Amino acid sequence: MEKVYIRAQKMEVISLLTSSLAHDLHNILAPISLSISLLNKKISSPKTKTILRAAKESTNEGIQLAKNILAIGKGSKPELKK
Q: What is the distance in angstroms between the CA of the first residue and the CA of the last residue of the chain?
């Protein structure tokens, strides 16, 4: 019974840690994503737009990673990239 209790405690700590990590990561990436979108509307240079597109894609991948980490922490199945 003690082993089951210790395992449950470990899983709860892992869940809290992953949730915290996912939220922090999302809080870092969300303003970056928004800023990229706003910059993209103001910029007309094709070369700069290409750079912004790459940055936006990377940011979106980071946001998806945060969502997957959160899903794992909640015991759900993460969304896999196809």
A: 41
Phi and psi torsions of 50, nearest 5°: -65, -40
Residue 47 CB burial class (10 angstroms; 0-12, 13-18, ≥19): exposed
Residues 20-76 have pLDDT tens digits of 888 899 999 999 999 999 999 999 999 999 999 999 999 999 999 988 888 887 777
Q: List, in sequence order, the alpha helices (H) in 1-82.
A: 2-42, 46-73
Site of tokens 């990673």: 65
At a CB cut-off of 8 Å and minimum separation 6, what does 52 contact? 36, 39, 40, 43
